[in-house]
Amino acid sequence: MELFLLVLVVGFAGAFAFINGFHDVSNSVTTAVRTRALTPTIAVLLAAIFNLVGALLGTTLALLISDEWISLPSGPEGLGILLAGLTSACLWGLGTWWLGYPSSSTHALLGGLLGSGFASTLVGGNRVGGTDLWLQIVLPLLLSPVIAFVLAFLLVYPITWLARYSQPRRINQRFRMAQSVSAAAFALGHGLQDGQRSMAVILLALMAAGFASGSGMPLWVQLFAATTMAVGTLFGGWRIAHTLGRRLVRIDPMRGSVAQGLGAIMLFVGAIGLHMPVSSTHTVGSAIVGAGANQRFDSVHVVLVLKVVAVWALTAGATALLGGIFFLALNPVL
User: pTM of the prediction?
Assistant: First the structure.
């Protein structure tokens, strides 16, 4: 039974990585496609390649998550918590994609795990534990959209000043070239950040089943997570790209380049410098709105922005509820 649960968890972790790439490809390509810096086909291929490379570049964050920040009960109980959490995160990702709303896969996964862990305590089991879970995981995820919005809004000022004597056509041409680079950089950062979430889940499953110690990342886990996410990216979730690029805010090549470049930097700093999770969806979405809001005319669709923020706020709670329900349904066979 335990081996069967382990195989299921690995399979659902692959599904989560696939949906993550499928769901979040819009974060990497939206502004570049919207401003015609890249064609949709080239943009998606670029995002898939750099997502793959990014996921293969590092495992530090995944090891910290699985070895220090999150601890699970061993045996079928821990595997059941993972399976329930992954199921809720996958369903939430598919649901928000269908509705065309960007949402954080990391928030969904964390909410699902905490909800299924709480449900485990209701039936006499153990909860999901961890060291400084709030400080290391939750706080960076909550602060990143605020920081991205403020910095993107402020960065438009010096860049506009530097380009004040240039012709609009030349400005747009230069920033479209910059967007090609920033789109690749953002996809690389997305691979570094989100690719390690799936690796951490699989490593937690291996530890719960007694097949790993958490001190190192098996190569096959890294390759599996990176490949499934890259394949998911190739399928392209264009419903969300339409929301970010056309419905949320009116944006030009300069502001698109600012938003995407800032988002990439924040992902790199989080993954490499601070070793903290940063939501690519929250970061680039907030940066797009921040850069787009810094214009003389009203360019932000305020009602839609509020709806997106509401989805962000509901993500962890909704997936926690789903994760709890799924665990209670699984509990009789654990």
Answer: 0.92
Pair of tokens at residue 59: 């495992």
Our measurement of the distance from residue 287's CA atom to the centroid of its chain's CA atoms, rounded to an integer in Å, reads 15
CB 3 within 8 A of CB 209: yes
Half-sphere exposure of 323 (CA within 13 A, CB side): 32
Q: How far apart are the first and last CA of the chain?
A: 8
Question: Maximum CA pair distance of the chain?
Answer: 70
Rounded-to-integer distance, Cα 158 and Cα 138, Å? 32
Whose CA is closest to 233, among 6, 52, 87, 32?
Answer: 52
Strand-pairing partners, residue 249, are 300
- pLDDT, tens only, 138-195: 777 788 899 999 999 999 999 888 887 778 788 888 888 888 898 899 999 999 999 9
CA angle 291, 292, 293 (to 5 degrees): 95
Phi, psi values for residue 128, rounded to 5°:
-80, 120
In the block, tokens 């896969």 appear at 105
Q: Residues 312, 315, 316, 320: what is their CA dihedral angle, to the nearest 10 degrees?
A: 170
> What one-letter code names the amino acid at 90?
C
Neighbours of 284 (CB within 10 A): 31
85 contacts 109 by C-beta, under 8 angstroms: yes
Cα separation of 213 and 74, whole Å?
12
R_g of the chain, CA atoms, integer Å: 20
**CA pair distance 65, 136, nearest whole angstrom:** 9
